[in-house]
Design a protein that fits this description.
Layout: E1 3-4, E2 28-29, H1 32-44, H2 49-69, H3 75-86, H4 93-107
Antiparallel strand pairs: 1-2
Helix pairs in contact: 1-2
Length: about 110
């Protein structure tokens, strides 16, 4: 079972770094099996466990953000979307009334 520390333990004050890039500390409790797996994977890539974990976490975070912010459409949906942009349907009476109300509100 793994978990990430959320700041419940007090962290000791750290002097500001000069010259080097500032860093933040991340702690996690992991099972011995996961630790063995991480160590083995890091060794295979010729990295330290810390470097391996940081790279893996960064990749996972970027993928999570991309999945949450990028809309991916099938080819058929892309074509339908493009067609709707290029040839929109005529406005409905309800839309025309809404536009008129908006114009009236903005002129006040």
């Amino acid at each position: 079972m793994s978990s990430v520390a959320t700041g419940s333990r007090p962290t000791p004050p750290v002097a500001p770094r000069t010259g080097a890039r500032a860093t933040a500390r991340l702690e996690a409790r992991i099972s011995p099996e996961l630790q063995t797996l991480l160590r083995h994977a890091a060794e295979l890539q010729g990295r330290s466990v810390t470097d391996f974990v940081v790279a893996a976490v960064q990749d996972a975070a970027q993928r999570a953000i991309e999945q949450a912010t990028v809309l991916q459409l099938s080819l058929a949906d892309q074509e339908c979307f493009a067609q709707a942009l290029l040839s929109p349907p005529p406005p409905t009476p309800a839309l025309e009334r809404a536009v008129q109300r908006r114009r009236a509100l903005l002129q006040e």
